[in-house]
Design a protein that fits this description.
single chain; alpha/beta; Rossmann fold; nine-stranded mixed sheet; 28% helix; binds S-adenosylmethionine; binds zinc ion
């Protein structure tokens, strides 16, 4: 039995001129002399100031910590399991490949994908990279898993070489089909996991004055270069048993910012809540 060989990503691109980055002592450098320090936690920040829409973009430290507590309690284990098997099904049978978690947050899913993949009987090399626009998320991710390459960056201009990614996945994230097009190999896959119609409907009923306030998501707008090759839904129940778990879940979702004042006040007083999880998994194939 030969386990899959996990390597670090060697396909990083300079976010300024897209030239290949070479790893040197303590930093990554391109041939134009742009240099990006490797942080003590092991990640690299490839988000140039001009791409930042705010001083501290993406999820805050408090949101990252809430997500970690919620995910580590196992409420979304079924999502991680479903995702891992979908990814294993879609890993190309080639000597060397690269899988990217785009908008990886604090690394819960990529860590599980790596652990599941590692058990495969397969002699190929595989690199796993996670990017997120939030520095706080990437710091947490680099503590969670030491085998992945963690990068602060944006999905709309992902800092990888052209045609160097085999599979990109995006869980409840800010996907960018045009950004992914710049880095996917022909035949490369995109896996999206997004909330479906009944997702957290009991929570929405509590926090919105009118349920219609939360417009349910339209299917993703894809370009002609992508074809949908598989889609399925996943439903399960979540039993939250403390007020902290309820607040943690709320701070992981966009509902935190959209909830009514009264809705938030109602949530503050609740100690338990049973919720429906309803998600849709989609696999797309890219052809240039
Ligand atoms: C709802 S969270 C999901 C995180 C993770 N995928 C999970 O499910 O645990 C969305 C994440 O997208 C990140 N994000 C927001 N805009 C982004 C962008 N343009 N590029 C990359 N990540 C982004 C946020 O910082 C946050 O960590
Ligand atoms: Zn450069």
């Amino acid at each position: 039995m030969h386990a899959m060989n996990i390597i670090s990503a060697n396909n990083l691109a300079c976010p300024i001129d897209k030239l290949a980055l070479t790893k040197r002592a303590g930093c990554y450098q391109c041939d134009n002399g742009h240099s990006f320090d490797i942080a003590k936690q092991g990640y690299v920040n490839l988000l140039p100031v001009q791409y930042k829409r705010s001083k501290d973009p993406g999820d805050s430290k408090a949101m990252v910590q809430a997500r970690t507590r919620f995910l580590d309690a196992g409420f979304y284990q079924a999502v991680a399991d479903d995702l891992s098997s979908l990814i294993i099904k879609n890993i190309p049978a080639i000597k060397s490949s690269c899988i990217l978690d785009a908008g990886c947050g604090e690394g819960y899913y990529l860590n599980q994908v790596i652990n599941a993949t590692q058990k495969l009987n397969n002699e190929n090399d595989i690199a796993f990279a996670g990017i997120d626009i939030s520095k706080h998320a990437i710091i947490a991710a680099s503590k969670r898993n030491k085998q992945a390459s963690w990068i602060v960056g944006t999905n709309s201009q992902p800092p990888f070489l052209k045609q160097s990614i085999d599979l990109v996945f995006c869980i409840f994230g800010f996907h960018s089909f045009s950004g992914f097009m710049d880095i996917l190999k022909p035949g490369g896959k995109v896996i999206l996991v997004e909330p479906s119609a009944n997702h957290l409907q009991e929570l929405k009923a509590i926090i919105y004055a009118e349920p219609a306030m939360d417009k349910s998501k339209k299917p993703p707008a894809t370009t002609n270069n992508y074809s949908l090759i598989e889609s399925h839904t996943l439903q399960f129940q979540i039993n939250l048993e403390t007020n902290m778990q309820i607040l943690d879940l709320l701070s992981m979702t966009p509902h935190l910012f959209r909830a009514s004042h009264q809705g938030k006040a109602n949530i503050e007083t609740m100690d338990s809540l049973t919720l429906t999880a309803d998600m849709i998994f989609r696999v797309f194939e890219y052809q240039p």
